[in-house]
UniProtKB/TrEMBL annotation:
Keyword Signal: yes
Alphabetical list of PANTHER family matching this protein: HYDROXYPYRUVATE ISOMERASE, INOSOSE DEHYDRATASE
GO molecular function: isomerase activity
PROSITE patterns xref list: TAT (PS51318)
Alphabetized SUPFAM superfamilies for the sequence: Xylose isomerase-like (SSF51658)
Domain Xylose isomerase-like TIM barrel, chain residue ranges per copy: 58-278
Keyword Isomerase tagged: yes
Pfam families noted in UniProt: AP_endonuc_2
Signal peptide: 1-27
Protein name: Sugar phosphate isomerase/epimerase family protein
Keywords annotated in UniProt: Isomerase, Signal
Amino acid sequence: MCSRRYFLKSSASVALGALFLPVLSEAARNTIKVNNVGIQLYTVRKAMLNDAAGTLKQLAQIGYKELESARSEKGLYYGLQPKEIKNIAEDLGMTLRSGHVHIDNDWERTVAAAAETGQDYLICSTLPSQGQTVANYQHCADTFSKAAEDCKKAGVMFGYHNHDYEFEKETGQVLYDVLLDRTDPEMVKMEMDLGWVILTGNDPVTYFEKYPGRFPLWHLKDMDKDKLQSTEFGKGAINITRMLQNADKSKMKYFFVEQEEYTGTAMNSVKYNFNYLKKLHM
């Protein structure tokens, strides 16, 4: 697999320039109302490992409603049991909707745990086998199809979360498109990380139109195109408002705020991002 920075720096600067739209003025923002804001818990990963229940309480106090977990050194739910995180979230007025996992030797237990939490989606966060070739992506697509069958039996929807390297090409084929074209759109959904898609010079809206209904989940983030890393909303180069205005084209059901790097503390960043979104209104 190529490095993220190598691939991004080798992407076409013209395409990137067309997609890094300026943030809209305050007046132009007054076209959208954002409710049920979700968060990918990887954003507050250290806090979750130190005190999962306390961190969830802080997120609830800020106003976050939807949760997506991420596999950690303490397991799928930061040391909490499946029913435990479900109950804590519900008591706080939140819902665990999704979780990032790997397809590995623990897959059967992973699916069972997801079913126990009552979450809607189980998202593979990394390719199950490595290789930037069409053949490997075809193999991964077939693995996803089998995983989706397992999830369906458990009452959970399977999906895959992209990075940047999936948008490389081999023999003229975009590798990400191989995953989309080779899997059943009713069985294998995609969680689109909008930031990484745009950094590669691609437009998420083009994918929403070409593959309708495939992107029910989003990672919503702003990106510093010079540092090639995430930042707080409105401080980077991605037009958050434009993305939200195209939610219907995506058939988006849930979005999760994600920020991987911070200028201060993670909790200050998630507060800032939540307040930014709540200022967007009809």
